[in-house]
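name: query_chain
kind: protein
chains: 1
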Amino acid sequence: MIMNQIRLSQQAKDQLSRLKAKTGIKNWNILCRWALCYSLSEKTLPTDIEIVADSNLEMSWFTFGGDYYEIYEALVKAWCINMKLPTDEETVAKYFRLNLERGIAHLCGTGFIKSIDDLVKLAVKEKA
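structure:
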């Protein structure tokens, strides 16, 4: 388990609120999963900044991951390996948080997400 509790920054909470309104997805954890996977799919390291967990949005690791929490941990560890980073608990937790916050910011900041269909289009690439 990467961490017991996940608390987001106020900025991320505000961005998730906007995404909830646009997509109709009611659960924070579902949007957070999308955001994490979106960020992990990028080929760059997120900016190494201190994340101030100053919102009241908090969830357990098991709520975040649901029945598949082990897969999310494996994804973050595999991403660390691909980025040539260590896979100790501290590094994995750090890059989980950085990727989660980056993913939320990118999903909200693209202007592309206007509905749940736009979110699905990010994940499903049609073959030409």
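note: Strands lie at 5-7, 58-60.
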